[in-house]
């Protein structure tokens, strides 16, 4: 089934923000059988992700006081199973805080064009519906409702903890490398970035975690294949920019974080290197404001990861323990900061970044690392760009500051890859766009206005 005529709304707000330099193509829809987007929205989210969420939270979901939450959770699953029409989020109580009202209004802005068209879960753009699943889950839980038994309840905590525990074995070997990386040559920043890039392969929404891998160093094998599996590599540009920041005494670097668990440990390792090398005088972790996409990290996850590592047994995990202690100091000294923002859990294209976040990045941030597949999809507005279209013209042209995307490919979307690399990946692997085997490192200079 082709997308509905006139349904190409990739940009949900009419902001004055700078836009990509090239004409914006159609977004991805999830109504074409055989595509990964279709499988995700018609089956995977309900049968795998929400089913596992139910199993992980069975003890609370079957409690009497969770009755209303359970009904809303089941209703969400039913809506997905029947691909019903989208509906607006529930109205807020009149005494809701300005923050909640604003967040609700932003979702209204996102959803209204598709509510007007009576779109279903499959006919609205994929990015909208996939983010909306998690927002509906948060609504069902009553995550922000102080009177709800689900107040601030994280349904993914069990998986995130398992991911944290199983990260240690691989992380011990990886963290041993970080203090020894050369600080002023491109080799150091390139290896630290490569570690954070390939950390994105270890994604719990695709490959659920269990603690049984806690002593196995799987990641070394992944890193061995890093260069071979990279389909675009701007690490020279990244290193040159990093060196400029280092020479002027260090910049403000942000990491727009993706998954908790092993990937987050690789982000902390990157941030450690950035501070130790003098490339960054401060690192801000941009984190999700509510549980989403199963494994995406909140501030509390980050703090829990740091604490876990700082308390590891030093006779078994000396390097991981030492890093954990160092990370605690960075947080205490204010060299590392955490910032949660609703924008990171919304389906806006990144060129429609909301305020005050956009102005903050524009004025304060000297380099933003954008981690993972879902964030990358948003960089591209989840639109079907020509895969060879330059990253600078698509993202570098509008992003509010210099930007480096570190992504393993998990969705049928991309840009900035040479045709011969695309052909190589196609010939090696039928599922090259979605199975996380291949990665890209893109650098964009950012909009000047
Ligand atoms: O954790 P990441 O890298 O953002 O990956 C999550 C993304 O991957 C997928 O699971 C597949 O595209 C999406 O559902 C989601 O956009």
UniProtKB/TrEMBL annotation:
What function does this protein fulfil?
Answer: Metal-dependent phosphatase that shows phosphatase activity against several substrates, including fructose-1-phosphate and fructose-6-phosphate. Its preference for fructose-1-phosphate, a strong glycating agent that causes DNA damage rather than a canonical yeast metabolite, suggests a damage-control function in hexose phosphate metabolism.
* Manganese listed as a keyword: yes
What residues form the membrane-spanning segments? none
Methyltransferase listed as a keyword: no
Top EC class of this enzyme: hydrolase
Record key words, sorted: Hydrolase, Manganese, Metal-binding
What is the recorded name of this protein?
A: Sugar phosphate phosphatase
Composition-biased stretches, type Polar residues, lie in: 1-17
Source lineage: Eukaryota, Sar, Stramenopiles, Ochrophyta, Bacillariophyta
Q: Which cofactor does it need?
A: Mn(2+); Ni(2+)
Family classification: Belongs to the damage-control phosphatase family. Sugar phosphate phosphatase III subfamily.
The record ties this protein, via InterPro entries, to:
ARMT1, ARMT1-like_metal-bd
């Amino acid at each position: 089934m082709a997308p509905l005529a006139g349904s190409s709304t990739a940009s949900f707000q009419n902001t004055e923000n700078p836009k990509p330099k090239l004409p914006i193509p159609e977004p991805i829809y999830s109504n074409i059988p055989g595509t990964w987007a279709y499988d995700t929205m018609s089956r995977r989210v309900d049968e795998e992700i929400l089913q596992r969420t139910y199993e992980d939270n069975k003890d609370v979901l079957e409690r009497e006081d969770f009755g209303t939450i359970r009904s809303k959770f089941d209703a969400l699953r039913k809506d997905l199973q029947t691909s019903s029409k989208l509906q607006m989020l529930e109205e807020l109580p009149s005494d809701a805080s300005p923050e909640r009202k604003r967040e609700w209004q932003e979702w209204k802005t996102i959803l209204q064009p598709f509510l007007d068209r009576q779109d279903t879960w499959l006919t609205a753009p994929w990015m909208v519906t996939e983010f909306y699943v998690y927002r509906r889950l948060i609504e069902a839980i009553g995550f922000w409702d102080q009177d709800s038994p689900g107040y601030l309840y994280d349904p993914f905590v069990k998986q995130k903890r398992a991911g944290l525990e199983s990260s240690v074995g691989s992380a011990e070997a990886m963290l041993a490398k970080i203090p020894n990386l050369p600080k002023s040559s491109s080799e150091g920043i390139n290896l630290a970035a490569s570690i954070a890039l390939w950390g994105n392969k270890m994604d719990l929404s695709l490959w659920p975690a269990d603690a049984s891998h806690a002593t196995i160093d799987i990641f070394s094998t992944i890193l061995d294949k890093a260069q071979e599996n990279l389909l675009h590599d701007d690490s020279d540009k990244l290193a040159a920019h990093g060196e400029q920041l280092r020479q002027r005494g260090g910049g403000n670097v942000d990491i727009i974080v993706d998954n908790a668990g092993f990937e987050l440990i690789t982000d902390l390792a990157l941030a450690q290197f950035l501070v130790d090398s003098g490339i960054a005088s401060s690192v801000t972790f941009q984190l999700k404001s509510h549980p989403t996409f199963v494994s995406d990290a909140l501030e509390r996850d980050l703090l829990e990861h740091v604490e876990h590592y700082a308390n590891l047994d030093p006779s078994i995990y000396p390097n991981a323990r030492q890093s954990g202690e160092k990370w605690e100091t960075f947080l205490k000294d204010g060299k590392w900061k955490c910032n949660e923002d609703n924008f990171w859990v919304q389906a806006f294209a990144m060129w429609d970044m909301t305020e005050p976040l956009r102005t903050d990045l524009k004025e304060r941030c000297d380099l933003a690392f954008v981690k993972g597949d879902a964030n990358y999809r948003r960089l591209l507005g989840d639109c079907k760009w020509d895969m060879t279209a330059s990253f600078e013209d698509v993202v570098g042209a509008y992003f509010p500051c210099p930007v480096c995307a570190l992504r393993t490919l998990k969705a049928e979307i991309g840009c900035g890859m040479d045709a011969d690399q695309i052909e190589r990946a196609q010939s090696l692997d039928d599922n090259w766009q979605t199975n996380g085997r291949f990665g890209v490192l893109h650098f964009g200079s950012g909009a000047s206005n």
